[in-house]
Amino acid sequence: MPPIPKAWPFEEAAKVAKRLAASGRDHALFETGYGPSGLPHIGTFGEVARTSWVRRAFTELTGLKSKLLAFSDDMDGLRKVPDNVPNKEMLQEFIGRPLTRIPDPFGTHASFGAHNNARLRDFLDRFGFDYEFASSTDYYATGRFDAAARRMLECHAEVLAVILPTLGPDRRSTYSPLLPVHPKTGVVMQVPMEELNPAAGTVVWRDPDTREAFETPVTGGHCKMQWKADWAMRWYALAVDYEMSGKDLIDSVRLSGRICRILGSAPPEGFTYELFLDADGQKISKSKGNGLGVEDWLRYAPPESLQQFMYNQPQRAKRLYFDTIPRAVDEYIANIDKMPTQDPATQPTNPAWHIHAGALPNHAGSPISFAMLLNLASVVNAHEPDILWGFIRRYAPAATPDTEPLLARLVDCAVTYYQDFVRPTKQYRDPTPDERAAIADLGRTLAELPPDASAEIVQNAVFEVGKRHPFPELRAWFSTLYQVLLGQNEGPRFGGFVALYGIAETIRLIDDALARA
To answer: Which long-range contacts (C-beta less than 8 Å, at least 24 apart) are formed by 169-175?
Structure first.
């Protein structure tokens, strides 16, 4: 195996490579799981993207074949009616039934499960993920899980010994890893087993309401597993080599791993990623609707920037809110600018290598940062892209939407971001007397520069002005410029902004700010 690049997807891939070498198999199975009672969300995107990067690194390290299985737990019983669907009253009648045996409240598919599965596949296809879709209902019904279900029946007592200590008294009294599907009502039953018949492959249980007893095969989709047992059974039945999970599932991973060993195989290699936080540092919740969704992100930035955000430090909790977008965009731009200058051996340490599946991107990056475009949009109060292009063509005369496709996307996004997020929160402050003197000095200094002065010349001039005045540090000087001139706390490299906006226009901006104060 070649040297392992210093990048977390390669470190994870090395674990899978070692696992396969020990097993003697020549292909790897990567898996991601999806609960289709709700619609795909940003966590779904993150898990599939991250797993895809590990899979790509595995291919690079070993040259072996692999597959990513996107597994939908669509045989789960509906526990409650979601808030974001039509025909809620109709769904209420089907509580407890498998999602694939419930009518579609949207009226577009054969079942509610099929509708949400289609949404998942559309979601994944939109981003070009390479995966194979799998339905729990299909796998159970067609016998793919029959041998594993019979094995679970044989190990029933051992599995109970693992799970029962983790449950409260009430749940403990009814728990079984096997959930029979009621032959009359179609409900997935959570009832204790009265008899276990491993030789026949059946269980006997009783309807808690009618007290009628039933003998049900554990095969053919007549039973499914409780979810922790189901997870373990899937790992065992399919020989899954790798699956990620969030920090909130650490205990579940541990329990499912123990059950997988009881069934007779080692659990997959895993990776625990941290959860996302909202603007206030609270955990993002689908039910609360806090934080940022995929559609929100894509309204303000290209999809590659979302992948950049997902790539960075996955084992560290991160705020997922609007103000994280510009930094992620500019990190992505910096990485694609850097990638062509790297030799092939070091390119895999660059996030852009993973985002673009090991190939150079089909565009040349952007000559202007997203932060710079946002500040330009803020100063000129941009309400359409053409306003920004007027300044861009002066700064980079050869730039057009055709020659700079990424820049064109960023211009559109910058106008939208400014109108929706920056403009409503802009708040200028008046300068102190010392700050006023420094800003006036800057205006005079800029007037002495040639109109086409470079960004570096302007930046040096701004530095010199700041040094001439009693600021505790130059950071305070730049914060003053952002707050007084731009109405925000942070901004881009000021010399670059002046070069883009124009020296004469910046002097007018200074004059207007001082007249306003």
So the answer is: 175/226
